[in-house]
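[User] I wish I could look at a protein chain and see how it folds. I have put the entry right below:
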Amino acid sequence: MSRYAVLIGCLALLATAIVAAPAQAKDGTLRVTFTKGAVIGGVGAGRGVLTYEGRDHPFTVYGLSLGLAAGASVTELAGRVAYLRRLGDFPGGYRSVGLGGALLGGAGGVQLKNRKGVIITLEGPRLGMEFAANLSRVRFALD
């Protein structure tokens, strides 16, 4: 009988750990201005602010996209950062596969994910002319 009690206790502990882990993650908001130029591949850079736990954290972002791309654009993006357990999980490399475009103006959006499970979802107006179908790597660095 004690063998079953230990097994049930272990299962209860495991279930508590699985349920409690996502609850510790917090969300933040993000605003960024990103400028991009592309011919076959593309490069871009920008600056923004991450609001996390009531504080603003300025950052720099730069990226590279490989695939079919042409044009140039300036994008003002706003969105959300999810599954952020601590501020140190935010900086670093993110990946995304995307499809987008603008003809003088339009809308842009992207969802990025890093190795720590942090997901950034951004959207906003885009100015310029661009078409892209690519794999992107983006790096965020806190200032």
In short: The helical segments are 2-24. Confidence is low (pLDDT under 50) at residues 4-22.
